[in-house]
Design goal:
Layout lengths: L17 E5 L2 E4 L4 E4 L2 H4 L8 H11 L13 H13 L6 E6 L2 H16 L3 E5 L8 H6 L17 E4 L10 H15 L5 E6 L2 E2 L5 E2 L2 H14 L2 E5 L23 E4 L10 E6 H4 L15 H14 L2 H23 L6 E7 L2 E6 L7 H14 L2 E2 L1 E3 L5 E4 L7 H16 L4
Parallel strand pairs: 3-15, 5-6, 5-7, 7-10, 10-11
Antiparallel strand pairs: 1-2, 2-3, 4-12, 8-9, 11-12, 13-14, 14-17, 16-17
Helix pairs in contact: 2-9, 3-9, 10-12
The structure holds pyridoxal-5'-phosphate (PLP).
Pyridoxal-5'-phosphate (PLP) binds next to helix 4.
């Protein structure tokens, strides 16, 4: 029989069909309500259908829906770029380009590096994630599911361990891996860039070790290597600061943006030092839809929200409630499965770890299912799918947050493995 359907290649964490969302709540086609701790995987730091964003979208669709920036400029793009640059605390003149997605931002950053430095080598990190397009998957520090079955990928990409206070990798271990790399695999002069998430998202909400970040900055300066920070998941307030690199005391050369940048419309960006982003071959960057006027209008509204002090009070309140609840769970020994809290600021994960090795995945499946049945959407991360990454809107109403955490508490206490 002939069928017409969505490919089954997606891992759908929750097999539900959503029709409506408001701040931290969504409703499915049967009108069942869920508290949303997934936020469309980090896209909704300011909630579903934030009124400032929806108003900006409504106003823009009546004026101009599309123009390709390679053909002619448009106001929303031209207004957005300087405002985005102003948000990013890098002490240098900045220029940028807009993309349709995070992966496209990754791809373009690689192009900028090649065009500017003439070097194709890139060093990425174990457990890192930078997208699903063909050059981006190469950078991901995890084979299954991202690279499995794709065959030979572009070379010139090397991975080293990701040092974090939340994993077993120290700065010394990462430095040793780097020294080995340059002794055994490749010449340091072949490397154009390091690409790193200041807080790994898919990797389990692991913040980069601060000492290593500073070492990396110095290393890049000494060897003329571009430091790219991928803030696609960690940016736009997720960690309680506008960008996660602000926790590290170093500035990147290029920054990748996406996800929450436009409140749910598809948009990404590569922003960086003008010395890198300007003077490239004409026509080397672009795309038909990238920097779509409606997405830009939504992003302009996001910039306004980022500039509102209330946003940061809400993020702080969220972080306080979450961390104090987790500490209480620990004191009460809620479940033997409760492991460490990962992350930094308002970007937090909760590890499910038990002495019975190998059961973490089964435990996670049970947690996700039980939570969904009780009206809470959760999302896993980490190399072993053993860390619940919490991505509710930072604007979540305190009572909805408390309700969601109470469901989580009940679910964790009732794990039955
Ligand atoms: C850190 C990071 N980089 C890049 C990407 C890819 O973004 P997109 O899915 O918009 O292509 C993601 C998506 O999860 C991400 O978390």
């Amino acid at each position: 029989m002939q069928t017409f359907q969505v490919t089954d290649a997606f891992t759908m964490v929750h097999t539900i069909t959503l029709v409506k969302g408001k701040n931290a709540e969504v409703w499915d086609k049967d009108n069942k309500r869920y508290i949303d701790f997934v936020g469309g995987i980090g896209v909704l730091n300011f909630g579903h259908c934030h009124p400032t964003i929806t108003q900006a979208i409504h106003a823009q669709v009546d004026k101009l829906i599309h123009y390709a920036y390679n053909a002619a400029g448009h106001l929303p793009y031209q207004e957005l770029m300087p405002k985005l640059c102003q948000l990013i605390p890098i002490q240098a003149p900045l220029s940028g380009m807009l993309t349709n997605s995070g992966a496209e931002a990754t791809e373009n950053a690689l192009k900028v590096v090649r065009l500017k430095t003439g070097k194709a080598g890139v060093i990425a990190f174990d457990g890192g994630f930078h997208g699903r397009t063909l050059a981006a998957v190469n950078l991901n520090g995890k084979v299954a599911p991202y690279k499995k079955g794709l065959g030979a990928l572009e070379t010139h990409v090397y991975h080293i361990p990701f040092p974090s206070p939340c994993n077993d990798t120290s700065t010394e271990m990462a430095k040793a891996a780097l020294a080995r790399l340059f002794a055994v695999e490749t010449d340091v002069d072949s490397i154009g860039a390091f690409i790193v998430e200041p807080v790994q998202g898919e990797g389990g909400f692991l913040p980069l070790d601060k000492d290593f970040a500073q070492y990396l900055r110095q290393f890049c300066d000494e060897h003329g290597i571009v430091l790219i920070m991928d803030e696609i998941q960690s940016g736009f307030g997720r960690t309680g600061k506008p960008f996660a690199f602000e926790h590290l005391g170093v500035e990147p050369d290029l920054i990748l943006l996406g996800k929450s940048i436009a409140g749910g419309l598809p948009l990404g960006a590569v922003i960086g030092k003008s010395s890198l982003m300007d003077g490239l071959n004409k026509g080397s960057l672009g795309g038909t839809y990238s920097g779509n006027p409606v997405a830009c209008a939504a992003a302009l509204a996001v910039v306004d929200i980022m500039n509102d002090p209330q946003t940061w009070q809400q993020a702080e309140a969220y972080e306080r409630t979450l961390t104090s609840t987790y500490e209480r769970w620990q004191q009460q020994s809620l479940t033997p499965w409760l492991g460490a809290m990962t992350g930094i600021g308002a970007m937090r994960g909760i590890t499910l770890k038990h002495a019975k090795l190998g059961l973490d995945a089964a435990c996670m499946t049970q947690v996700l299912q039980k939570a969904r049945e009780q009206g809470l959407l959760l999302m896993p991360s980490g190399n072993y799918r053993h860390i619940i990454r919490l991505l509710p809107p930072l604007t979540i109403e305190p009572e909805v947050l408390t309700e969601g955490l109470a469901i989580m508490e009940q679910v964790l206490a009732s794990i039955d493995i």
